[in-house]
Amino acid sequence: MRSFDKEFEGKYIHEITAWQIEAWKSKRSKTCKVATVNRELALLKNMFSMAVKPWKKLKENPAKDIKRLKGETRRVRFLMPDEVQILLSNCNDLLRGLLKPLVTIALHTGARKGELQNLQWPQVNFELGIISLLDTKNGERRDIPMNETVKTTLKGIEKTSEFVFPNRNGKRIDDAQIQIT
């Protein structure tokens, strides 16, 4: 936030333009890592979005079309076998007993949380050994092969809804129902 203070000091929010944000991004990229600039840009975009939508202080977000800097390398980390066991051992009896199967399937398939939240039984084909994900991040269908652990886990889930991991009402579970504290 301090970098914004220096750049936009004395300006009202409605006076800040996309050109000024690009100039800030350019200056900032000379003194900071790409990841830092991208995180700060994400914060700035969010602040302007809040000013537009819920607060109605602006008509449009001047940062909405500003692109992130390229070259950011994202850290890839895999859980070690002992970490997997600790994770699974802490899933017992949560989400009406469905959290452990959900986490198991996520670990073995690489499916995203939203893909598993939307997963319905017709998308699970035990004969072909494939899970067809229809609501993916890029909007394209993705077929994931099932290993024996995934098949066994899915077969152990009681079909009480069209959703594989339903909430108490048989509908799609939401983030608040998955949240573990």
The strands making up the biggest β-sheet line up spatially as 1-2-3
Low-pLDDT parts are none
Order of helices and strands: HHHHHHEEEHH
In which range does the helix fraction lie?
Answer: 40-55%
Q: How much is the radius of gyration in Å?
A: 22 Å
Shape: elongated
How is the main sheet built?
3 strands, antiparallel
Average pLDDT score: 90
Estimated share of beta-strand residues = 5-15%
Measured between the Cα atoms of the first and last residue, the distance is: 28 Å
Task: Please tally the β strands and state the result.
Answer: 3
Class computed from helices, strands and strand pairing:
mainly alpha
| Total DSSP helices | 8
Protein described:
This protein is mainly α and 181 residues long. The longest helix has 19 residues, at 34-52. Helix 4 (81-89) runs antiparallel to helix 5. It contains 8 helices and 3 strands; from the N terminus they run H-H-H-H-H-H-E-E-E-H-H. A 3-stranded antiparallel beta sheet has the order 1-2-3, with no helix packed on it. It has helices spanning 2-8, 18-31, 34-52, 81-89, 99-109, 113-118, 148-155, 175-178; strands spanning 124-125, 130-133, 142-145. The chain starts with a helix and ends with a helix. The chain is elongated and about 60 Å long.
Strand and helix map with partners:
Blueprint: H1 2-8, H2 18-31, H3 34-52, H4 81-89, H5 99-109, H6 113-118, E1 124-125, E2 130-133, E3 142-145, H7 148-155, H8 175-178
Helix pairs in contact: 4-5, 5-7
